[in-house]
Design goal:
Shape: globular
Largest sheet: 2 strands, antiparallel
Radius of gyration: 23 Å
Number of strands: 4
Helix content: over 70%
Strand order of the largest sheet: 1-2
Distance between the termini: 37 Å
Structural class: mainly alpha
């Protein structure tokens, strides 16, 4: 079958391949499970897992940080194993099954079961997440102008899942108990897998997503076929990762590793290794490649800073919502996690139309300027939260409007940075390094969670009171938000001032 025949033979819905809509619903439900669980995670650790500890905020911040870092780092490994051995279909099924089991294990009230559940989700996400996104690209012929709008539809599914899940899982957890919320997240994951499986049964994907090489899949290592060995090793990795998550305490009180746990040390090592390899590649590269690689590293660094502040939404900001936002009659603290996705859904099309209109006028800012503005919006959003303390009532609770405005501004910042960043990586990276640079880009989210953990520990409240809040916590949070605002605004200003130079280094890449 020729490539053109393969693509022209696809059934269409609204001008897009039918397979897109099966992937849309599979990803929507997978993100439903992921964000539904994430909305509950910090509050569940505070109220249940570490309830007996005075330093439960510290322990929660450490575990949340390790979990987030490992979730995103796992995609680099899972993506590689899919490319080389399993293929996208097998990887999506393996990842989806492991994640489903993980969500259901969270419904068991036991500390060790809790860490095993998180580990199952980490390993499963590594196989599922990079492959479902890549699968969308295979549905379109190279150069097809509909591809961008196809990805826009697909990413809308991600945000619909991220918007609805905290609302439903948060309501179930508050009304019937934590484990009903986690259970619904598990049902969401299974639903996503069923959609994907039904697409395969109806042959909407053709021959896409199959193992790259049947010979490699069936090749035996230590007497076991690689297609069997990879899932076995994935399952065996689960207790090891659970042990890493459970080792959340600092390995030293002073010196080089002060306040660092094992996962922090591992990511420090990974960071040094990645930078050393990039320095080696820059040394080897020609002048043009060196300039573009330098910009790719810079943009990744700026994106890491942004995600580091953005991902506080599932930890410190959720705790601030629980302890200091007047949510009476509006929503629960867990449900506030839906606000970011809600604003992304509302703002994505208007901001996309704005860029198109500016392009026609030749006013569309280059990528560095968008990154600088994105960081400024992040800084202003935290400045809004920092100012909220001035409007606290007699109980130390501030109006919900501050949180709503904060998420609006943060979402605008996200839309200025995230959609353009990924495409620029492929333009800036030399062909021989595209896969590696994309891996580094995804790792930026993993390193962002190291920032989340650091900030979470700094703003940890020491108390044995389960219902601590009000004026006991208000100043700790608002002072912390003011500091974050200054760093984000400072970073944004530096990027904007350096933008003319960065633009020059980018050459023809817009």
């Amino acid at each position: 079958m020729t490539e053109s025949t393969e693509f022209s033979g696809q059934k269409q819905i609204f001008g897009h391949p039918q397979g897109l809509f099966y992937l849309f619903f599979a990803e929507l439900w997978e993100r439903f499970s992921f964000y539904g669980m994430r909305a509950l995670l910090t509050l569940y650790m505070i109220d249940v897992i570490f309830q007996a500890l005075a330093e439960r905020d510290y322990a929660t911040a450490a575990v949340y940080s390790s979990y987030g870092s490992l979730v995103y780092a796992s995609t680099v490994i899972g993506g590689k194993l899919s490319d080389k051995i399993l293929g996208m279909r097998n990887s999506i099924f393996l990842g989806g099954i492991l994640m489903s089991i993980g969500h259901f294990v969270l419904a068991i009230e036991d500390d060790m079961a809790f860490f095993l559940a998180l580990s199952l989700i980490i390993v499963g996400n590594g196989f599922f997440k990079p492959n479902i996104s890549t699968f969308v690209g295979t549905l379109y012929e190279k150069g097809d102008p509909k591809k961008d709008s196809g990805f826009t539809i697909f990413y809308m599914g991600i945000n619909i899942g991220g918007w609805v899940a905290p609302l439903l899982c948060g309501w179930l957890a508050a009304t019937y108990g934590w484990h009903y919320g986690f259970g619904l997240a598990g049902i969401g994951m299974l639903t996503g897998l069923i959609f994907f499986w039904s697409g395969i049964k109806k042959n909407v994907f053709g021959n896409r997503g199959l193992p790259p090489n049947e010979h490699v899949l069936n090749k035996k290592v230590l007497g076991v076929k690689q297609g069997v060995l990879v899932p076995v090793l994935a399952v065996l990795a689960v207790p090891l990762i659970a042990l890493l998550l459970a080792s959340y305490k600092a390995i030293a009180t002073d010196g080089m590793f002060a306040d660092q746990n094992i996962v922090n040390v591992i990511f420090t090592g990974i960071g040094i290794a990645v930078l050393a390899y990039l320095a080696y590649e820059m040394f080897k590269a020609n002048v043009t490649e060196r300039k573009e690689l330098f910009v790719a590293v810079l943009l990744t660094f700026f994106m890491t800073i942004f995600w580091g502040f953005h991902e506080l939404s599932g930890s410190v900001i959720t705790l601030f919502a629980a302890r200091n936002i007047d949510l009476d009659g509006i929503m629960s603290a867990a449900q506030t996690n839906s606000l970011n996705s809600m604003f992304i859904i509302i703002l994505a099309i208007p901001i996309s139309m704005m860029w198109t209109w500016l392009s026609k006028k030749n006013w569309n800012p280059r990528t560095p300027y968008k990154f600088g503005l994105g960081l400024l919006f992040a800084g202003i959003s935290f400045y809004v939260l920092a100012l909220s303390g001035g409007s606290a009532n007699e109980s130390g609770f501030v109006p919900f409007a501050y949180l709503l405005l904060m998420y609006f501004l943060l979402s605008v910042g996200e839309l200025f940075m995230s959609p353009v960043g990924l495409s620029k990586m492929t333009d800036l990276a030399p062909l021989r390094l595209i896969a590696f640079i994309m891996g580094v880009w995804f790792l930026s989210s993993a390193f962002a969670f190291q920032i989340v953990g650091f900030i979470g520990k700094q703003l940890a409240i020491e108390s044995t009171d389960k219902n601590v809040g009000g004026f006991e916590t208000l100043t700790v949070y608002t002072d912390g938000f003011m500091l974050i605002a200054k760093y984000a605004l400072g970073a944004g200003a530096v990027v904007l001032l350096a933008s003319p130079l960065i633009k020059k280094l980018m050459g023809k890449v817009h």
